[in-house]
């Protein structure tokens, strides 16, 4: 009811509270519930209120029916709903059935489907008829994909990452997987939910993604001269380059050179290829050198990854390192 001891009473608040009680009971299948105020007695400090609730019997489904002109066999449509004749008319179960029906249509080329359960409740009858009104809308095939907001990335790269097939029927599951795949790309700052556009002249449907790119490359560094013991000068410095999207191709590379003093230096080079042989395999290869007083360390690494699905990956890493004395440093 929303009324508490010490709160202010008003007829409007009371009516809203009674309606909330009725809605909660109806959500549990008690569609004939009645709430009445049986007593209202004024006191010295306020008004004492008393209400009576007649729950009635739980309403049950008598008939579940659908629109006759549907694009799927009736047995297929009936198989996805769980509310059957004899079941209580519970709002949450009807909502679950609505989601299941939406999924059936959206997976099979009908993203514009509209459906509503009409519940016919008679005042003196505990049997309730549930009639699903379904407007499938136009059947849609993905005739193309368009990206707006691109600055550096090639559109073909995003098409490859999305994995959508042109010319197939619209399938909400595939579109959701494509959207998740695009949102995982490190150089895309934001990917909005795609919209469906229809060409007024050709009637073809286009899936439209609006994306926002972030800067995928960074360069930093500096060099200087330091004096040696013999009075000569030598170079020291640091230079780093990193990119997740080389020239908009989706490839990655990094380069790091550091020489903090004249007797030590580091060098690392890494290259990443996201699609090997146009297949969902990615590979990376890198080399590293480290020089210190008395020794030199060298290493090479390689990895191959396979993506059986857009949200999973299996990777194999191989690495080899060698260490040898530096006769000059020694």
Describe the secondary structure blueprint for this structure.
Elements: H1 11-27, E1 34-42, E2 47-54, E3 60-66, H2 74-79, H3 91-106, E4 114-120, E5 127-135, E6 145-148, H4 155-162, H5 172-183, E7 188-191, E8 195-198, E9 205-213, E10 217-227, E11 233-243, E12 252-261, E13 264-273, E14 281-292, E15 295-309, E16 312-325
Parallel strand pairs: 3-5, 6-9
Antiparallel strand pairs: 1-2, 4-5, 7-9, 8-9, 10-11, 11-12, 12-13, 13-14, 14-15, 15-16
Features:
seven-stranded antiparallel β-sheet, single chain, alpha+beta, 330 residues
Question: Could you describe the 3D structure shown?
Answer:
With 330 residues, the protein is an alpha+beta fold. The chain has helices at residues 11-27, 74-79, 91-106, 155-162, 172-183, and strands at residues 34-42, 47-54, 60-66, 114-120, 127-135, 145-148, 188-191, 195-198, 205-213, 217-227, 233-243, 252-261, 264-273, 281-292, 295-309, 312-325. The chain has a seven-stranded antiparallel beta sheet, with no helix packed on it. Strands 6, 7, 8 and 9 form a four-stranded mixed beta sheet that branches. It has a three-stranded mixed beta sheet with strand order 3-5-4, with helices on one face. Strand 11 (233-243) and strand 12 (252-261) form a beta hairpin. The model has no long low-confidence stretch (mean pLDDT 88).
């Amino acid at each position: 009811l929303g009324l508490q001891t010490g709160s202010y009473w008003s007829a409007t608040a009371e009516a809203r509270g009674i309606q909330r009680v009725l809605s909660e009971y109806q959500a549990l299948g008690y569609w004939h519930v009645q709430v009445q105020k049986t007593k209202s007695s004024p006191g010295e400090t306020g008004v004492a209120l008393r209400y009576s609730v007649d729950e009635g019997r739980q309403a049950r489904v008598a008939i579940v029916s659908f629109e006759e002109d549907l694009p799927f066999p009736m047995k297929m449509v009936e198989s996805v709903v769980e509310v059957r004749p004899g079941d209580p008319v519970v709002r949450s179960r009807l909502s679950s059935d609505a989601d299941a029906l939406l999924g059936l249509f959206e997976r099979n080329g009908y993203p514009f489907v509209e459906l509503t359960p009409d519940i016919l409740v008679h005042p003196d009858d505990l049997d309730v008829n549930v009639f699903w009104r379904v407007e499938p809308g136009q059947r849609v095939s993905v005739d193309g994909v368009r990206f707006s907001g691109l600055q550096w990335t090639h559109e073909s790269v995003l098409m490859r990452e999305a994995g959508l097939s042109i010319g197939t029927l619209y399938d909400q599951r595939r579109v959701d997987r494509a959207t998740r795949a695009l949102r995982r790309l490190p150089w895309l700052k934001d990917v909005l939910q795609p919209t469906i556009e229809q060409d007024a002249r050709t009637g073809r449907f286009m899936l439209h993604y609006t994306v926002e790119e972030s800067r995928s490359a960074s360069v930093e560094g500096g060099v200087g001269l330091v004096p040696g013991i013999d009075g000569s000068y030598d170079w020291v410095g640091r230079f780093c380059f990193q990119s997740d999207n080389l020239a908009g191709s989706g490839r990655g590379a990094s380069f790091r050179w550091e020489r903090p003093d004249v007797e030590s230096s580091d060098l690392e080079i890494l290259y990443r290829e996201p699609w090997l042989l146009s297949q969902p395999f990615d590979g990376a290869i890198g080399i590293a050198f480290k020089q210190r007083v008395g020794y030199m360390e060298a290493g090479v690494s390689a990895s191959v990854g396979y993506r059986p699905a857009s949200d999973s990956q299996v990777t194999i890493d191989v690495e080899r390192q060698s260490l040898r004395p530096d006769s000059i440093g020694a």
